[in-house]
Amino acid sequence: MSRPPVSPSPTRQRRKEERPQELLQAALELFVDRGFSATRSEEVAQRAGVAKGTLYRYFPSKEELFKAVVREHLVARLADFAAAAAQYQGRVQDLLRHMMQTWWASVGQGTAGGITKVMLVEARNFPELAQFYVDEVIQPTHELIGRLVQQGIARGEFRPVPIAATVHVLISPLLQMMLQEHSFGACGQRPSGVGAPEMLDAQMSLLLCGLLAEPASKI
Questions:
Q1: Are the CB atoms for 115 and 69 separated by under 8 Å?
Q2: Which CATH number fits domain 71-218: 3.40.190.10, 3.30.1520.10, 1.20.1530.20, 1.10.357.10?
């Protein structure tokens, strides 16, 4: 008499469902710690506690694994920000302040913030990954911030300014802080001696004085 098929235990089934996330977390940590080129796929599998073949079952190459990490930790967060901005009804200046502080708290100061440094360091050697990062992270970020600046101008909240250049001015300090956090900060060194939230608040106050159509005394 044949035996009925054995169903996987709930624990084993749950472990299998969690495996992609465990692989992505292991990959994120190794990519940020060692860089893309120096990270080997077998090291990711080992850190996640699986065989190398299991890793390739979910992610057929190291490049695809890196893209999945970026989509999980950056692209998904950008989509959340864009959705929230589309529903927002208040002042654009308040939303910009909130977005900058929230991005730092949820991404920039964490391990995922180190992806920016990895791309800046290794983009030249991996042009296909660089193009992917431009298409899925940089361009959508610029488009989102640009829409908010344009919205502020249309409402009369901001004075007319060149949108693309203003977006760069808004984003650049945040990028600088992420690079510092994941270079000097990784060694316990923060040369400025000023916390990122304070720096972001000062940045937004200074920039808004130049953006707002109303007198600076009303900020």
A1: yes
A2: 1.10.357.10
211 in Cβ contact with 161 (< 8 Å)? yes
Long-range CB pairs of 129-132, under 8 A, 24+ apart, other chains included: 129/36, 129/63, 129/66, 129/67, 132/67, 132/70
DSSP 60-125: SSHHHHHHHHHIIIIIHHHHHHHHHHHH--S-HHHHHHHHHHHHIIIIITSGGGHHHHHHHHHGGG
The partner residues of 212 in beta bridges, in order of sequence, read 158
- The full set of domain ranges for the chain reads 71-218
Cα–Cα distance, 14 to 49 (Å, whole number): 15
State pLDDT tens for residues 103-140.
Answer: 999 998 899 999 999 999 999 999 999 999 999 999 99
**Where does residue 134 rank: exposed (0-12), middle (13-18), buried (19+ CB within 10 A)?**
middle
Residue 158 contacts residue 207 (beta carbons within 8 Å)? no
Using the 8-state DSSP alphabet, how is residue 157 labeled? S
Contact (CB, 8 A) for 58 and 20: yes
Q: How far apart are CA 111 and CA 28, in angstroms?
A: 7
| Confidence (pTM) | 0.83
Q: What is the distance between the alpha carbons of residues 62 and 158, in angstroms, rounded to a whole number?
A: 44
Asked whether 129 and 63 are in contact (CB, 8 A), the reply is yes
